[in-house]
Design brief:
By secondary structure, the chain is an alpha+beta fold. Among the domains are: about 1-30 and about 410-445 and about 460-490 and about 495-535, no CATH class; about 540-800, Alpha/Beta hydrolase fold, catalytic domain (Rossmann fold, 3-Layer(aba) Sandwich), CATH 3.40.50.1820. It contains 14 helices and 45 strands.
């Protein structure tokens, strides 16, 4: 009832209702976070406002630990998702659960252009299906089609009020994003059972031919289908290995990217996360079903597939077969021709960034623009391109050019930069907002949206939603910026926008409130975790100091209430963490400082450089952590300098092991999903792909990571054995003098063997180590029972090695708080 009352009133009363509701439910003030709190969190998922502005649809997830099965990593939570609908035109109308008789597992997909129908999906058990909901009678018709979820590309879309284009799985298998984990674990169990029965062979056969992986099973195929809403008639437009697609603005054509010929490994270079197939562009006329253009000989980069405003051509970044990605160029493909544009020496990025982040580009009228850097220079700007002339800078007068386009308007491109809203035309950039507002774009928070639709597919409209310097939501349009709702939005996450309204999530402790902002008012729609609204959530303290390179940098310290029991130093090269609170949707995952702060430990996230020469980085990691620790101890003398543990996860775990071979400053170490031996990791199979090699793109994961990813060794082991040795703490294991806890998992892409060989080395050297292996888990832990146990294992280790009563460290060996560098082996 309190939610309904709040929705009737304006901003001030809504805020008062929220506060009153919190205190009215008997909340505990400033209680510290526990693991059980994390596992019981409910959460909001995606939300969307209908095209006519009347309806809002949102996803609501039940408590995390109520999942029936955990077989699809973080997407296992889709099984406990509900859909709720709100009539935004009537403030007195309460929110309603949509399709309550269909059970859990419902997700939003897309509104119809006419706003009277809604495409949804349902995940229940092994079944995943598209459904079409009619808002007239709140009924649903299930289509029998199994959705596909192209990695990084588009999902389902409406081509018209009555026609949908849907990526689907013809064999009704789950898409890779949902089925990869469960396929691996089930196949293993079936394989073991076949061996136990002894009646048929149980094996996997993989060939390597000319640098190409040839599995025994074929890779599953996908299809792009057209579905008529009223008749449910299905037409297959394209079948094969679907990568991406996008519909033209007039709805008459579709550009499809298909994955086709296999690319030999390392041809022309080995890249982390690169697809193992060439991508080919196909244009389809939806009016006739014909395929008037198929582009052969050009490999299409991910994350760019943009139709021109007049629907005649699509913009892609393409390279000739056999060329590097940074040797490609922008290409306009129409039904009649394929035309490259002259980039005049501009750099769109290295090949690795083209694959991972994509090339930012769009159309300015019928002329392409691209975000790029000149050959000599590091400043990025937007450039107008042509087929024959030189590129022209459009944003050179800005202090810092925008890296993305917020909207594509009828006269120019709209973007945020230098605290203002700009229109970019062929004549340059001119401001559409006054200088005193200090605006920034309100980015849509959607963890499931592919990279291209999220970052390189600007909506075609003449308005944007912004956050001003006081945290107020504003509609910016035609030089005006009226306020939509009240302040505090600088902490909000934006879920959905329209020209009249915005939906945001506002945090209070571990509670989230879904808010509806419109001109002059803010109304509360719903709330999750209301009993945790007064939960004590740690505020990080900035620690400013000089870094390894002598420049000013910033580390972050999380302090408990009262005297700290110890200090956990949590490094990750290239990143210092000030995000104490994420949101209930994601707080369950990974390492949460608040849990340890609530138990009385201080947590320091030190600034550690990420881009260093491989032979120098180990010493730089140790020195960087020392500088951050010294600065934190100087700023907060109450920190116990003799009770510190160094803990790293993933590449942070690798850094922790590098430091452990060089420093005796810490009582103990924790290495979670840590790399230790670069020679060993280079050729290791992906643990999940080992038994399903038909999904072969993941077989190049560890090779790519070692050479061109964070490993950064550039060459295979036989070309740079000295660099591999210098980057492997395993080969310096005899220099480790403190206890180490290893946390690993059998399905992690960081091979469990990396922890096992390091543990074995410490065992051989009569040191102290403990290894904990979680079965059926990956790089992050998903099972509620395993999450609970993982925290307990860490708390036990902290008690054993940090608490004076439980520590095995003798007084003679106890760290004194100052750096103690070990002499590295020659």
């Amino acid at each position: 009832m309190w939610t309904l009352i709040c929705r009737v009133v304006g901003t001030a009363i809504a805020a008062a209702c929220l506060a009153g509701a919190a205190h009215g439910q008997g909340l505990e003030a400033d209680r510290s976070l526990t693991v059980d709190d994390l596992l019981g969190l409910e959460a909001f998922g995606r939300a969307a406002i209908s095209p006519d502005g009347r309806w809002a649809i949102y996803e609501r997830r039940g408590p995390y630990d109520t999942m029936p099965r955990i077989e699809a990593n973080g997407r296992s939570t889709w099984q406990i998702m509900e859909l709720w609908i709100v009539d935004l035109s009537d403030p007195t109308s309460p929110e309603e659960r949509l399709l309550p008789h269909e059970g859990l597992g419902l997700q939003f997909a897309a509104w119809s252009p006419s706003s009277d129908h809604l495409l949804i999906t349902r995940l229940q058990g092994d079944g995943f299906e598209y459904g079409i909901v009619s808002l007239v009678d709140r009924s649903v018709r299930w289509t029998g089609l199994t959705p596909d979820l192209p990695l990084g590309g588009a999902i389902a879309t409406w081509a018209s009020a009555n026609t949908l284009l849907l990526p689907a799985r013809p064999d009704h298998s789950l898409p890779l994003a949902l089925g990869y984990d469960r396929t691996s674990t089930r196949r293993r169990a079936e394989a073991w059972e076949r061996t136990a029965e002894g009646r048929e062979p149980s094996r996997t056969v993989i060939d390597a031919r000319g640098g190409v992986l040839v599995p025994e099973r074929p890779e599953p195929r996908q299809a792009l289908v057209r579905l008529e809403r009223d008749t449910l008639q299905i037409t297959t437009l394209q079948e094969g290995w679907l990568a991406d697609f996008t519909v033209s603005p007039d709805g008459g054509s579709v550009a499809v990217v298909m994955r086709e010929e296999s690319i030999p490994l390392g041809d022309p270079q080995l890249l982390h996360m690169e697809d193992d197939r060439r991508r080919r562009l196909v244009l389809i006329d939806l009016r006739t079903g014909r395929v008037p253009l198929r582009v052969d000989g050009l490999d299409i980069a991910p994350h760019l597939l943009r139709w021109s405003p007049d629907s005649t051509a699509v913009l892609v970044w393409a390279r000739p077969d056999g060329a590097r990605w940074d040797e490609g160029t922008l290409v306009s493909a129409s039904f009649e021709s394929t035309d490259p544009f002259n980039r005049g020496g501009l750099r769109a990025g290295a090949s690795a960034s083209v694959v991972v982040a994509g090339v930012q580009a769009d159309w300015l009228g019928l002329t392409p623009v691209m975000y790029a850097r000149p050959t000599e220079g590091e400043r990025g700007d937007w450039y107008l391109l042509s087929q024959h002339g030189l590129p022209e800078s459009l944003t050179g007068d800005l202090v810092v050019a925008p890296t993305r386009i917020a909207a594509s308007g009828p006269e120019g491109l709209l973007a945020f930069a230098d605290g203002r809203y700009w229109e970019i035309t062929a004549h340059g950039a001119h401001a559409l907002s006054p200088p005193n507002l200090n605006l920034r774009e309100a980015m849509i928070f959607d963890l499931t949206m592919g990279r291209r639709p999220k970052s390189n597919e600007a909506p075609r409209r003449d308005w944007s939603i912004a956050i001003d310097g006081e945290g107020q939501v504003r509609l910016v349009r035609d030089g005006a910026a009226p306020t939509l709702g009240g302040g505090g939005a600088d902490l909000d996450k934006t879920l959905a926008v329209s020209p009249e309204a915005v939906l945001t999530l506002r945090p209070r402790g571990l509670a989230d409130t879904l808010l509806h902002h419109r001109l002059g008012s803010t109304e509360a729609i719903a709330e999750v975790n209301s009993t945790l609204a007064n939960m004590f959530v740690t505020e990080p303290r900035p620690i400013r100091h000089l870094g390894f390179d002598g420049r000013e940098t910033e580390s972050w310290l999380f302090l408990p209430n009262g005297e700290p029991r110890g200090v956990i130093v949590n490094p990750y090269p290239g990143w210092a963490d000030n995000l104490a609170r994420l949101d209930p949707l994601t707080m369950t995952y990974s390492f949460r400082p608040e849990v340890f702060v609530g138990a009385g430990y201080a947590v320091l996230s030190p600034s550690v450089p990420g881009d260093l020469p491989v032979r120098e980085r180990g010493d730089a990691y140790a020195r960087s952590v020392d500088l951050a620790v010294d600065a934190a101890l100087a700023a907060f003398p109450e920190l116990p300098s003799d009770r510190m543990v160094l803990w790293g996860h993933s590449f942070g775990g690798y850094a922790a092991l590098e430091i452990a071979t060089r420093s005796g400053r810490f009582r103990s170490y924790i290495a979670s999903s840590a790399y230790s031996d670069m020679l060993g990791v280079w050729g290791e199979f992906d643990a999940l792909g080992r038994i399903q090699p038909e999904n072969g793109m993941f077989f190049r994961f560890n090779q790519g990571w070692t050479e061109t990813g964070q490993g950064a060794l550039q060459d295979p082991p036989w070309r740079a054995p000295e660099d591999y040795a210098a980057s492997s703490p395993f080969l310096r294991a005899d220099h480790i003098t403190r206890p180490i806890l290893f946390l690993t998992a059998d399905l992690d892409f960081t091979p469990a063997t990396q922890a096992e060989r390091m543990f074995s080395a410490i065992l051989r050297n009569h040191g102290h180590a403990r290894i904990v292996t979680y079965w059926g888990e990956k790089h992050l832990t998903w099972s509620p029972a395993n999450i609970r146990d993982r925290y307990q294992q860490i708390f036990d280790w902290l008690a054993l090695t940090l608490d004076d009563a439980g520590s095995e460290t003798t007084s003679a060996d106890a760290p004194k708080g100052e750096p103690i560098l070990q002499t590295p082996p020659p």
